[in-house]
Structure formats: structure tokens, C-alpha cells
């Protein structure tokens, strides 16, 4: 199980340990991919170029982005994920990363729990 919190702005977040540092990760239910990572993590993660991908953004916009394969620890396991890199300081955790989890966000208590199905 992964535990997190809901920010004062109502955003569900978790903390991921990546490249020796804890990073705030937004659980973005509007993002159907795996991960959007800070540019500074590309080299430490030894990102392998996969190709280009079409990303659909809010408001009907679409962009073509470079996609990479990375190995990342998630819920105590090393997983292969597809990532894009942006000049930001937080991680977006898309719904594809949590597709085998049940997410419970208690907004009044400001808590988030991601529980692996079948656990």
C-alpha cells in the first residue's frame, strides 16, 4: 500500500523515492500515461529513448513528446515505466501506473491510499 495526502488545493499526492531523493508526485487522474518526470532525472535514471508519443492535454490540445523507458521503484517493486521529461520539480503519476490499484482519497481527512488489487 502507498499512503499519501490531499493538498489544501484538493490534489492527491504521494511521495516517490527516485534517484536517491524523495519527490512529490501528483496522482493525476487526467493523465492516462505512466510518468512525467523532472528533466534533471533523465540521466540518473539512465532513460532509454523509446520514440515519440502523442499526449492529449486539457482543453483538447495535443503535443508530440519524446518518450523514454525508465526503471523506477514503485510500492516496493522495481517497475519499467514510460516517461516524458519536463522542466518541473514534481512528478505526475498517471493512471497507467496505478491501473492495478484502488485509490481512496479522503478529502476531509486529507489522506490518500493506493492499495494493490488482490492484496
Keyword list:
ten-stranded mixed beta sheet, 0% helix, 61% strand, 119 residues, 10 strands, Cathepsin D, subunit A, domain 1, mainly beta
The ordered H/E elements are: EEEEEEEEEE
Largest sheet: 10 strands, mixed
CATH homology superfamily name: Acid Proteases
Return the CATH class.
Mainly Beta
- In round numbers, the mean pLDDT is 93
Number of strands: 10
Name the poorly predicted regions.
none
The geometry reads as globular
DSSP helix count? 0
Span of the ends, CA to CA:
9 Å
In percent, how helical is the residue content? under 10%
What structural category arises from helix and sheet content? mainly beta
CATH topology: Cathepsin D, subunit A, domain 1
CATH architecture label: Beta Barrel
Q: From the alpha-carbon coordinates, what is the Rg to the nearest angstrom?
A: 14 Å
Strand adjacency order, main sheet: 5-6-7-4-8-3-2-1-10-9
| Percentage beta strand | over 45%
Number of domains: 1
Structural features, described:
With 119 residues, the chain is an all-beta fold. It has one domain (2-116): Cathepsin D, subunit A, domain 1 (Beta Barrel). It contains no helices and ten strands. It has strands at 2-6, 12-18, 21-28, 35-38, 48-56, 62-74, 77-86, 91-94, 101-106, 111-116. A ten-stranded mixed beta sheet has the order 5-6-7-4-8-3-2-1-10-9, with no helix packed on it. The termini are close together.
In short:
The protein has 119 residues and is mainly β.
Describe the secondary structure blueprint for this structure:
Layout: E1 2-6, E2 12-18, E3 21-28, E4 35-38, E5 48-56, E6 62-74, E7 77-86, E8 91-94, E9 101-106, E10 111-116
Amino acid at each position: 500500500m502507498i499512503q499519501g495526502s490531499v493538498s489544501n488545493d484538493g490534489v492527491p499526492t504521494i511521495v516517490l523515492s527516485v534517484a536517491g531523493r524523495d519527490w512529490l508526485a501528483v496522482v493525476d487522474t487526467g493523465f492516462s500515461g505512466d510518468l512525467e518526470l523532472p528533466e534533471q532525472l533523465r540521466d540518473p535514471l539512465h532513460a532509454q529513448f523509446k520514440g515519440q508519443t502523442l499526449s492529449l492535454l486539457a482543453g483538447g490540445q495535443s503535443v508530440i513528446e519524446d518518450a523514454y523507458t525508465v526503471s523506477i521503484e514503485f510500492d516496493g517493486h522495481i517497475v519499467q515505466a514510460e516517461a516524458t521529461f519536463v522542466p518541473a520539480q514534481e512528478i505526475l503519476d498517471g493512471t497507467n501506473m496505478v491501473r492495478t490499484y484502488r485509490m481512496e482519497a479522503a478529502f476531509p481527512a486529507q489522506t490518500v491510499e493506493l492499495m494493490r488489487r488482490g492484496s
